[in-house]
Amino acid sequence: DVAGTGTPLGTPSPALGGDGPGAHPAVPQVLRSCTEFVEQHGVVDGIYRLSGVSSNIQRLRQEFDGDGCPDLRRDIYLQDIHCVSSLCKAYCRELPNPLLTYQLYDRFA
């Protein structure tokens, strides 16, 4: 699940914000943690273009699914910063609705 919400990665959840009446959009913990970490430690050329080691990405995903917010300062993630950025990309790719909505797609394309 995403950050202890009981919601699998890429699935909408009221705990993650929504667009209903009185809802306050929120940035999911997985995106917030990963992007903050990349901003602090991963300002390198191609950070979102290059992929991380697959096993590290899966380990990180499992840690977010289980404990909620893993310690990204562990050596495994500091040595493979691309696994953190790869998880951000995977999260966005697995959303049920794209970030660029279908209604606005032609305006962006």
UniProtKB/TrEMBL annotation:
Tell me yes or no: is Glycoprotein among this UniProt entry's keywords. Answer: no
One example of the protein's molecular function in GO is: GTPase activator activity
Q: Which InterPro entries match?
A: PX-Rho_GAP, Rho_GTPase_activation_prot, RhoGAP_dom
A GO biological process of this protein is: small GTPase-mediated signal transduction
SUPFAM superfamilies, A to Z? GTPase activation domain, GAP
Q: What is the designated name of this protein?
A: RHG30 protein
The record ties this protein, via PROSITE patterns, to: RHOGAP (PS50238)
Organism whose genome encodes this protein? Aegotheles bennettii
Q: Where is this region: Disordered?
A: 1-24
Assigned keywords, A-Z: GTPase activation
Which Gene3D superfamilies does this UniProt record tie to the protein? Rho GTPase activation protein
- The UniProt record lists the Rho-GAP domain at 7-109
